Amino acid sequence: MPPLRVGEPGPIDDTVFESLRDELVADLAHGGWDAVYLSLHGAAITRRRVAPELELARAVRDAVGAVPIAASFDLHANLNPALARLLDFATGYRTYPHVDMRDTAARALRQLERIVAGEIRPVGEIINTAAIHARAPEFVPALVAPKEGLRGVELCRDRPATVTFCCKTGNY
Question: Residue 31 phi/psi, 5° resolution?
């Protein structure tokens, strides 16, 4: 399926989302896939859906069964913890502006190769903290979070078994 670019920001029209979802699921339902990679924003909404990417991930999981699925997300993603049960691997952009989109996709694809080869079996978790994302005047993201939330972030990042770690700032 070719990449889809949307011009104007704002909610996605529900018929556009449904068409995209249905076309993707129909293509995947033919089977024969070793793995699936999704490049998602992570903060999309439609006029009637607050978490269309979660719905998309569920539909993809239903279509491919146990086939490994990896996804990458924007730095500002608002990730639903239920995604951790649907995806085998997730990662995200680490820069703003997003100059690392290609590196992020490559990171996800490398891990998918390792999953398919049986080298790793990642276990993921999405933890939403009470962090507040603020933009400085220069549009450089800053993260303000309770001390205990940051301590949890450090523990995850520094574990020897960590394959990747991303801190998503979210858009609120």
Answer: 80, -175
Mapped onto helix, strand or coil, the DSSP state of residue 69 is strand
Q: What are phi and psi of 130, to 5 degrees?
A: -90, 35
Q: Is the predicted pLDDT of residue 149 greater than 50, yes or no?
A: no
Question: Is the pLDDT assigned to residue 42 strictly greater than 50?
Answer: yes
DSSP code for 106: H
The mean per-residue pLDDT over the stretch 37-64 comes to 96
72 beta partners: 39, 91
Structure tokens at 70: 């990896």
Strand order across the 69-73 sheet: 36-39, 69-73, 89-92
Task: Determine which helix (DSSP H) or strand (DSSP E) holds 49, and give its type and residue range.
Answer: none
Mean pLDDT for 69-93 is 91
- DSSP class per residue in 112-164: HHHHHTTS----------S-EEEE-TT--EEEE--HHHHHHHHHHHH-TT-S-
Nearest CA to 44 among 70, 69, 20? Answer: 20
Q: Is the peptide bond before 97 cis (omega within 30 degrees of 0)?
A: yes
The pLDDT value given to residue 126: 81
